[in-house]
Amino acid sequence: MTATPAARPETAKQQWAGGLMMFGAVMLMICGVLDIFRGIMGIAQDNVFVTTNGYVFQYDLTGWGWIHVVLGAVAFVVSLGLFQAATWARVGGVVIAGFIILANFLSMPYYPLWSIVAIAISGFVIWALCVVQTERPSAGFR
Description:
It is a single chain. The chain is mainly α.
């Protein structure tokens, strides 16, 4: 006869980790949706964005809008996976948040304040997804 180990109650540390995962999922979803809207603005009407002369990075805003739409859509899908606490979603969340940071850095001359805010939000997402440890120790270790 085998005995099943008694279920251990979740510790405060594990609850904190679950909260961080949800924080990362919600913030990535918000960042993704706003990135989709930002991309649509770039595709629909280029004159919404401020253009600065003499900046190192200069892009076609319509093409850049499509990049933001794709990044936003991928971020939204990955955030749905984060709500299920999937490992692939954690890795994908860190990767897509890194790409969002890079894209917002490169589009800083066109929309400077929002680019800085999006970089900060994506940085918090990366932090939240990297700090979480969802694996529980096996029953043999205490």
